[in-house]
Each structure stands twice: as structure tokens, then as C-alpha cells.
Design a protein that fits this description.
This protein is an alpha+beta fold and 271 residues long. Helix content is 25%, strand content 21%. The strands form 3 sheets. Strands 1-6-7-5 form a 4-stranded antiparallel sheet. Strands 2-3-4-8 form a 4-stranded antiparallel sheet, covered by helices on one side. A two-stranded antiparallel ribbon has the order 9-10. The chain starts with a helix and ends in a 6-residue tail after the last strand. The chain binds zinc ion. Zinc ion binds next to loops.
Length: 271
Amino acid sequence: MPELPEVETTRRGIEPHVIGRRIRRLLVHDGRLRWPVDAAIATTIAGHAIKRAGRRAKYLLLETDAGTLILHLGMSGSLRVLPASTPRIAHDHLDIELDSGQTLRFNDPRRFGSLLFTAGDPRLHPLLRQLAPEPLEDGFDADYLWKITRRRAVAIKQLIMNSRLVVGVGNIYASEALFRARIRPRRQARSLTRVECARLVRAIKATLSMALKVGGTTLRDYVGADGNPGYFRQKLYVYERAGKPCRVCRKPVRQFTQGQRSTYWCANCQK
Ligand SMILES: [Zn+2]
């Protein structure tokens, strides 16, 4: 699944191709995504220039004078910048054709992605309004994590993956950050000490920044905006390494299921 680093990598990849470009037309080849794509968007958005390519959590925001396109890649979506004449392949559902002759093409085999539109401030859209702090911004710090963990008995891994508390820490990065912070994924959130909160915040920021630097994680369904896969996977400490030696202590990496997701950890390194 594209996680925050993949979405931010996509944003950076498309940005130079879309800023200042007019949307010639929006083509909805198949609008049966997570929510049906409203056909009226095409009429509203046509002819307007993209002023900004932003991101909030895993939503890409293409802002124009008429309003903002809100795109989510879902479980398996990807956006590519291509010449508009490029023949479509299976699962190419949307084209945002630009006056440059290029198109932003949305491909999504599993259809959990979405395209929505808002004429108002996208940050006030119902899907975005309630979102928690961005993990790479200053608002997410040791004080904040300390505060939100005090009364919560939930496992710390589940807490950092809760998008009402912090956005964009998906399954891979949660396992990796807890390994870096040397904290067991099943620990009750409220059991973390102040020092551990600080360490975990640093670990989350470091894990996401590292992933961003290399362009996201290599996942089966993920390709960057330029069509190249990310290369983060080679640097993973524990994720999908069950039974393999821990990169720090050489003891086998363990795996269990937590909230229907696989968690990977080292019983020797994490306390
Ligand atoms: Zn270890």
C-alpha cells in the first residue's frame, strides 16, 4: 500500500509537471473507485490551471481557482505523468490531461483509491478536517506523543497507526520505527516513559525521512511518478524479515498479527 513516503514522493514527482498547467480535460474511464467519481468534476475543473500540488496525510491536493482535486491512491493506486497519447493499460481509470500535452494518469487495480473535489478550503473537507498532526512537522514531538499516550492502554503500534492521533505512519513504518526506538510493539501506550516517547518520535521521523530520501518503499503495486520503484525495502530492519537474523543482534526476527496486520520485531533488541 502506498504509505506517506510514497505519496509524498509522488507529489514531488508530479509537481514540476503540473504547476501552472491548465487542465485541458478530466477523463473518467471508469469512475467505480472507493467512492464513485462525480462526473460533474470534469466540467467544473476543465480550463483551470493547477496552482499548487499539496499533500495532507495521504491525500494529494491539486489546487486550482475553481477548487481542489483531492486524490487518494488507496491500496494499490499510482499516478504517472505520460504523454496524453500513451495507450491505456489495464486499470488506468482516470486521466487529468494538461495543456502541456501530458496527462496525469491514475492506475488502480484494487480500486480503493478516490478522486473527490471541493470548491472550498481542502483542509476543511470532511475527510481532512479531523486529521491529526503530520509526523514530519514540528507539531509532532515528544510532548505531543507523551500527552496522547498517557491514558491509552492500546498497544503502542496501534496508537502510532491511528490517523486520528498521527497521520501517515502505516504498517511498514510503524514496525520499523518501533525497532529503531527499541520498543516492543505490544507495549501499552501509557507504559512508555518520557524518554521512550522522545526516542519513538525521533525514530518515526527518521524512518519516514529515510524512506522519502530513497523514494518510498518497493512494493509490488507501487511505482513512483516516473515509473521507477522505490528502493527503501533493501534497508528495512524487520518488516517482512520473519525468521531472518536481526540486523543488529542476529537473533531471528519475529512476527505476529496485531489488529489484522503483521507486526515484525526483535524480542532481543526491543523492550
Ligand atoms: Zn535484535
